[in-house]
Amino acid sequence: MDLYEHQARGLFEEHGILVPRAEVTDSPEGARESARELGGRVVVKAQVKTGGRGKAGGVRLAEDPFAAELTARQILGMDIKGHTVRKVMLAQAIELADAESEFYVSYVLDRAVGRFLAIASAEGGTEIEEAAAARPEAVTRVHIDPAEGVTSAKAGEIVEAAGLPPQAVDVLVRLWQVLVREDAVLVEVNPLVRTRQGQLVALDGKVTLDNNARFRQARWGAEEVEYDDTLEATAAAKGLNYVKLDGEVGIIGNGAGLVMSTLDVVAGCGARPANFLDIGGGASARIMADGLSVILSDPAVRSVFVNVFGGITACDAVADGIVRALDAVQLTRPLVVRLDGNNAARGRAILDEHAHPLVEQATTMDGAARRAAQLATAA
């Protein structure tokens, strides 16, 4: 789960990393009052879970409280890479020591080798990606032994290799503490700046928590999750594993691997999947009704493909769930069903007996995908 910048900033502060004073608001008037409390000159920053805010105009300097109000009014409601700005953070403006005072530090999980990777550079800021691409030697990468972690000695090695100031040793040790204690898979500071007083301050931060450890991080409740798509929010409220896509064939399957394969097969038939929806091991009437309701609420959907392989949950139970769901949800677009595996024959018979005019069956995944694609593209 990604955190907002102001949440990441709060974690850094808890672990002793210096950050500017800041406040969060959702209104221009609140921005004016916050700027006044922070001393007048502030940076107004869009709070969205994506990068590139500065280049998109979502990070701006305001010289006084009235300018902060005007700037917040311009930023609130902006669309930044598909994310709507609903809150802004106002942070005290920091005076840098010199023009070469921006650095980059992060820890990220390197899944390929099963270890965390420290990444550091003496050339932080908005152009770090360009610097890394043009001059890879400007970015230091060091794998971390999980048994050792980041000690002062290891942090010193990273600092020396990257050409960072000596004070960065303490920052790297504390940033590792954030990663471990908060169950994160990514912690990033860009830029880490040196002030005129010689202090290192984290001006921006990004933290991604491990979803598997959310039971240990109870303070990040469901309200912290950002859904920019209303269908995804509706599906989440129903407990469905749903992701909106840009297509016309609605997809329901049991098991993430099967659903991913279904997306590929539908695309191979010349149509685009409209969503990812995994109903998992169960296909009760409620789950099927909720899934169909969400998918049929998408005006782009022209056909629906239900692809189920019966295992622990038998196909006749799935078919019964579909029939009961059709009694609860008005089916307005054609539905193609492929049942295979445990009790598949009985499941197909249940659907045949129900004989809904908009429901078709196919015995193979390829055949069902082809038919769903035909119905979608012909509509």
- For the CA atoms, what is the radius of gyration? 26 Å
- The CATH homologous superfamily of the largest domain corresponds to Succinyl-CoA synthetase domains
Q: Proportion of β residues?
A: 15-25%
What is the highest CATH level, the class of the largest domain?
Answer: Alpha Beta
Q: If helices are DSSP runs of H or I spanning 4 or more residues, what is the number of helices?
A: 12
CATH architecture type of the largest domain: 3-Layer(aba) Sandwich
Global morphology: elongated
How many structural domains? Answer: 3
User: Secondary-structure element sequence?
Assistant: HEHEEHEEEEEHEHHEEEHEEHEHEHEHEH
List unreliable stretches of 5+ residues.
Answer: none
How many extended strands? 18
Structural commentary:
- With 379 residues, the protein is an alpha+beta fold.
- The protein has 3 domains: 21-92, Dna Ligase, domain 1 (2-Layer Sandwich); 102-216, D-amino Acid Aminotransferase, Chain A, domain 1 (2-Layer Sandwich); 230-378, Rossmann fold (3-Layer(aba) Sandwich), CATH 3.40.50.261.
- Helix content is 36%, strand content 25%.
- The strands form 5 sheets. Strands 7, 8, 9, 10, 11 and 12 form a 6-stranded antiparallel sheet that branches. Strands 1-6-2-3 form a 4-stranded antiparallel sheet, with helices on one face.
- Helix 2 (28-37) runs antiparallel to helix 3, helix 5 crosses helix 6 (168-181) and helix 8 packs across helix 12 (365-378).
- The two termini are 38 Å apart.
